[in-house]
Write a structure and sequence with these properties.
Elements lengths: L16 E5 L4 H17 L2 E8 L4 H17 L4 E5 L2 H8 L3 H18 L5 E3 L4 H14 L3 H4 L5 E4 L2 E4 L7 H11 L15 H14 L5 H30 L1 E2 L1 E2 L5 E2 L6 E7 H6 L2 H14 L6 H10 L7 E3 L4 E5 L3 E7 L5 H9 L2
Parallel strand pairs: 1-2, 1-4, 2-3, 4-6
Antiparallel strand pairs: 5-6, 7-10, 8-9, 10-13, 11-12, 12-13
Length: about 350
Amino acid sequence: MTPAPHLDRTLLRAGMRVAVAVSGGADSVGLLRALREAAPEIGLVLSVAHLHHGIRGSEADEDERFVADLAEQLRLPLHRHSVDTPQAAKAEKRTLEEAARHLRYAWFRELLAQAQADAVATAHTLDDQAETVLHRLIRGAWTEGLGGIHPVVTCPGGSIMRPFLKTRRAEIVAWLREIGQPWREDASNLDPALTRTRVRHQLLPQLAAFNPRIAQQLARMATIARDEEAWWDTELARLLPPLILPGKPVRGGGRSVSTQQSEGSVGLELGRLRALAPALRRRVLRAAASQLGRDLNFDQTERLMEMCEPEGSRRQQLTAELRAERSARELQILREEPPLRPATRRRALDSD
């Protein structure tokens, strides 16, 4: 018989309580069965976690029953939870997919914080990694975005891990068929309205015609990008303190810092910025905006890069609440929340 799909056992340790996130699909069912098979040897304490997203109607109800039956069959405890994803998407102005992901991981973190498990295992595969990297590349990601899905994410109370991240989806499906383990199919995974679906079923197969190992290559790119980002994080922690100056310079020396939560500013000496290599200067500028609670896109960052040059512009409105100003010696980035329009202000007061 074919052995179970590859598990990254470096993520697992004896005595670890692992809640396996199971939607009912092939990948998550395969992860549960593979971990169940490996649990006695490693010394894992398993449970099953299933979230009902409040979408897909009776199909989602059947998924929940399927997972509950599977947990009972394997004699494993079941954590189950229900959320209203459409309502959350509307309230938070997210897409349905984004809201579902946000709610799902919020519940995983809750399980960890409540000490229900030491880790939550999700069934992301090498194929998911390739799709994620390609999807983010299309949308215009920074290097950290190209890092894709991380093998482990540390959370208060534990971690979220992906033991299947080096495993192909086809390998999992073939094994489930061999052992006679059914799974559920989610019709939304075939919805061409979703970009990720088109990436999976249209774009990746076309790229595979140029390179049959395109999924592996994209996954390797993610590994390289994550390692690069880890190195940059260490370097920036060392370099940033003397480069980013809080507040505004005041006459006679010193700096003034706003006490208003809606305001803030940081300064960067132009002489020091100009001495930096472009790759480092770009990261310093983004880090400066991040200290004001804002993330810059590529175009906004390049506008700041242009301001560092002697002939650069002296003022840029980067976003509705973020602007940059240049003096003879310093580049200032300032945040100020735009005033609420009367109707918006009334709604804000009514919600207090």
